[in-house]
Amino acid sequence: MQKRVVTLLMVVVGASLGISLLPIAWQMAGQAGNKWLNNNFTNSLIGALIFFILSLMLAKYIVAGVKKIETTLNEMSLTYLLFGSVGAIIGLTIGVIISIPMYNLAIPVVNSLLPILVMIILGYLGFRMGTTRMDEWRKIFTPKQKKNVAEDEGQVLDRKVEDHFHKYKILDTSVIIDGRIYDIAKTGFLEGVILIPNFVLYELQYIADSGDSLKRVRGRRGLDILNALQKEEGISVEMYDGDFEDISEVDSKLIKLAKLLDGVVVTNDYNLNKVSEFQNVPVLNINMLANAVKPVVIPGETMNVMVVKAGTERQQGVAYLDDGTMVVVEDGQHYMNEHIQVVVTSALQTAAGRMIFAKPAHSGRGIDENKDTNHSHERS
């Protein structure tokens, strides 16, 4: 269908050019007086035939070029196209005004080619001025609101309750998987708009599709937390569709985005925290917040965990909670890949993360019984 439209347009253009230009060609060939050749019908027919043959050779290339232009335009924002078009129209209008005196010059090349060149240059400059300084154009065309003198004197801000005037809070992968960000945001302590970059979402999806069952659980937990944040009415969540293709690491992309939007990085990654501070990027560390309040677990509490690997010390086993917190279990190597009840002996909370030390619940009872037996023997 598109090729037929291109062919039809080229035939119409060929017929028009034939009527306009072929009389000159017949005059140069000495056939100006030949009424069979030099008439509007014959000239239009010859021009249409020539362009029809050209369309058979060029139609597919023209269609491909049009599709490429459509794809390029679809990738551009509407604001970019609007300001670019307005700038180009203004530039072309100025070019037409400047070119009027050039048409009256007696120099053949100057009065024909120079006006076209001037209009092309000014049209391009207008397009660039419109697209590269969009923020300034917005400020010019945005009407300024009248200020209330009484409110200015009383320092009262006219704003709605649901409006957000705070910096973006940009979440990284670790803090989403951790899950505590949902509870913090739900209580209202995390003000402003929560921003989820697409590259963080892709990393979460990659973790959720991992072959490692532990990573898969953590990734799915992170996706569940994101869905819960988005569905919560009192929490404003936005997505950032852009990406920094020249940067490979997600942490570096987060810092770059925070600088670009003047946002705050929210994380519980110790290394990202230090790098952000070094690059003067504001950062909120959930672990530091947890360190300032009561620990989540206290000695004597029981929990059900699964020992997944051996610890660094003799007979120790290591388990993980759903949020990735490491639990070091005494004598845990005897219960590899088993779900057991453990009793918390101590909890260590640092900026780098949280670590829980525990021992099997039945082991604790056995130790207590042995201690009681020893004491009775000593008394006897």
What does this structure look like?
This protein is an alpha/beta fold. The protein has three domains: 123 residues, no CATH class; 125 residues, 5'-nuclease (Rossmann fold, 3-Layer(aba) Sandwich), CATH 3.40.50.1010; 60 residues, OB fold (Dihydrolipoamide Acetyltransferase, E2P), CATH 2.40.50. The chain is 57% helix and 15% strand. The protein has 14 helices and ten strands. The protein has a five-stranded parallel β-sheet with strand order 3-2-1-4-5. It has a five-stranded mixed barrel with strand order 6-7-8-10-9. α1 packs across α2 and α9 packs across α10. The chain is elongated. The chain starts with a helix and ends with a helix. Keywords: Hydrolase, Magnesium, Membrane, Nuclease, Transmembrane, Transmembrane helix. InterPro entries: Nucleic_acid_metab_PIN/TRAM, PIN-like_dom_sf, PIN_dom, TRAM_dom.
Say how many strands there are: 10
> What structural category characterises the helix and strand content?
alpha/beta
Largest sheet: 5 strands, parallel
Task: List the helices and strands in order.
Answer: HHHHHHEHHEHHEHEHEHEEEEEH
Query: CATH class of the largest domain, please?
Result: Alpha Beta
CATH architecture assignment of the largest domain = 3-Layer(aba) Sandwich
Instruction: Report low-confidence residues grouped into runs of 5 or more.
Output: 145-165, 364-380
The number of helices is: 14
Q: Describe the global form.
A: elongated
Question: Nearest-angstrom radius of gyration?
Answer: 37 Å
Lateral strand order in the biggest sheet: 3-2-1-4-5
